[in-house]
């Protein structure tokens, strides 16, 4: 198992899922702050007409406390350093920097907090990899402007980006613009900061919002290169290779079409700098007409990314005429159950070979450096009487996926880093649960609100430490 000499091993998180302190340091409310925990969250994510109001008597809001990284970041970064992290993927909460999102001047307390975090990372020799927008649209921009449907957000985002690039130009080299940007058509609430007016308008609104994000991302790339010479600005895709259910040509064609829209469309715009030809028919057949202003396409062409990052959790199996009974329970991005794959406790199908396929598909299409910035197993963990957490199931999952990455490198893929998701237990984005644990580090916090927030090393902590120390040779 051979990995490049300077391979970036580490872990990944998002501000809204671990920071807590949701009203401290001058921070304003953002989308995650009004999403309750539990099954109701997925209902809100999928339905139209969510009003973005909190009801603390009816619901629990775990993101308000997260795992209190805001106050415990030194302790947590020390644990990352103990594992040997080379890189730590994190995000900046936009509403810590601009509490409402549309102010002219930033919040100094928020800027100073991330200064302290970056300084602590560098103290331990860990490179920050920063996501600029990770499901954290300021709530005021959602309520007042309608989220990314409104082109005004391009202006507000550019102001935010200019501030953080100037502030952290000597501390952060690697940046990602929008988290899992291609997932926005499935869950516009997360990525685009709006609840669709109706199911009939969802695609029109979502693709218009995506266009605004493409413009904003291109501006960010240009600003990054201008303000931070030598910086690397990447895009971030949720990637799921799409398999045909069988060799029926109708199903093969359908799977190909689904893959192009989900996996390739946003990547083509970010990396090639233009709308792909195949999207024209899709727009025509779905009645989508984009408002593209003069200069937008030129800007997108000039603001292409330096590298591609991706999250990989599962593959997707497609059948043209599927029945509701054929859909797998955990298939968040569609498809039917794959009879050859096992699934996690949450129904997410486990397919390490799919990661090798994904990396080969992406590199074959774009010939750009790749980084896997999310991959992991959400599972129930048990603390034994002696305090140990024997998460061998997580080790097996990660081992198989790291092997798949090694095979992709042997295939010729230029893979530069791996940050497994939820390196420390945090609040699940999709379910709003603490019980869905991903980390190498156990956090004593539970869905009923109880817990001391004590940190505890799992068995996987020591395993991953050996993986990093051996540069992937000891699995």
Automatic annotation (TrEMBL):
InterPro entries, per database record? GH, GH_1_N_CS, Glyco_hydro_1
**Cellular-component GO terms for this entry:** cytosol
Keyword Lipid metabolism attached: no
Q: Which SUPFAM superfamilies match?
A: (Trans)glycosidases (SSF51445)
- From the UniProt record, which GO molecular function terms apply? beta-glucosidase activity
- Keywords in UniProt for this one? Glycosidase, Hydrolase
The record's listing under PANTHER family reads: 6-PHOSPHO-BETA-GLUCOSIDASE ASCB-RELATED (PTHR10353:SF122), GLYCOSYL HYDROLASE (PTHR10353)
Q: Which family does it belong to?
A: Belongs to the glycosyl hydrolase 1 family.
Full protein name: 6-phospho-beta-glucosidase
> Which organism is the protein's source?
Pontibacillus marinus BH030004 = DSM 16465
């Amino acid at each position: 198992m051979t990995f490049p000499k300077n391979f970036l091993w580490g872990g990944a998180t998002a501000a809204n899922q671990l920071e807590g302190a949701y009203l401290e340091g001058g921070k304003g409310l953002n989308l995650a702050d009004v999403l309750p925990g539990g099954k109701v969250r997925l209902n809100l994510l999928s339905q139209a007409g969510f009003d973005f109001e909190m009801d603390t008597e009816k619901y629990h809001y775990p993101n308000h406390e997260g795992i209190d990284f805001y106050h415990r970041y030194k302790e947590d970064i020390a644990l990352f350093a103990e594992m040997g992290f080379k890189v730590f993927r994190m995000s900046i909460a936009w509403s810590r920097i601009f509490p409402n999102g549309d102010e002219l001047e930033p919040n100094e307390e928020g800027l100073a907090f991330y200064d302290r975090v970056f300084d602590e990372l560098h103290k331990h020799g860990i490179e920050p990899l920063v996501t600029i927008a990770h499901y954290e649209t300021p709530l005021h921009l959602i309520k007042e402007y309608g989220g990314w449907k409104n082109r005004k957000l391009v202006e507000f985002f550019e102001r935010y980006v200019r501030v953080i690039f100037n502030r952290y130009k000597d501390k952060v080299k690697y940046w990602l613009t929008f988290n899992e940007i291609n997932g926005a058509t499935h869950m516009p609430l997360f990525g685009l900061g709006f609840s669709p007016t109706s199911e009939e308008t969802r695609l029109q609104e979502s693709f218009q919002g995506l266009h605004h994000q493409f413009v904003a991302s291109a501006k960010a790339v240009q600003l990054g290169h201008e303000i931070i010479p030598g910086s690397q600005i990447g895009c971030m895709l949720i990637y799921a290779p799409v398999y045909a259910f069988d060799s029926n040509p109708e199903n093969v064609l359908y799977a190909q079409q689904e893959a192009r829209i989900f996996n390739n469309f946003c990547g083509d715009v970010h990396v090639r700098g233009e709308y792909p030809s195949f999207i024209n028919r899709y727009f025509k057949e779905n009645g989508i007409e984009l408002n593209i202003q003069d200069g937008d396409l030129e800007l997108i062409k000039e603001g292409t990314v330096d590298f591609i990052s991706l999250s990989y959790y599962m593959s997707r199996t497609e059948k043209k005429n599927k029945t509701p009974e054929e859909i797998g329970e955990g298939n968040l991005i569609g498809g039917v159950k794959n009879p050859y794959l096992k699934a996690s406790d949450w129904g997410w199908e486990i397919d390490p070979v799919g990661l090798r396929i994904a990396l080969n598909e992406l590199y074959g299409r774009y010939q750009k450096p790749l980084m896997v910035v999310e991959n992991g197993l959400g599972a129930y963990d048990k603390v034994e009487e002696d305090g140990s957490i024997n998460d061998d199931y997580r080790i097996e999952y990660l081992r198989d996926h790291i092997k798949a990455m090694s095979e992709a490198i042997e295939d010729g893929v230029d893979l530069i880093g791996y940050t497994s998701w939820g390196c420390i237990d945090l609040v699940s984005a999709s379910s709003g649960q603490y019980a869905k644990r991903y980390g190498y580090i156990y956090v004593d916090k539970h869905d009923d609100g109880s817990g001391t927030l004590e940190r505890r090393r799992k068995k996987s902590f020591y395993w991953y430490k050996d993986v990093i120390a051996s540069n992937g040779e000891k699995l």
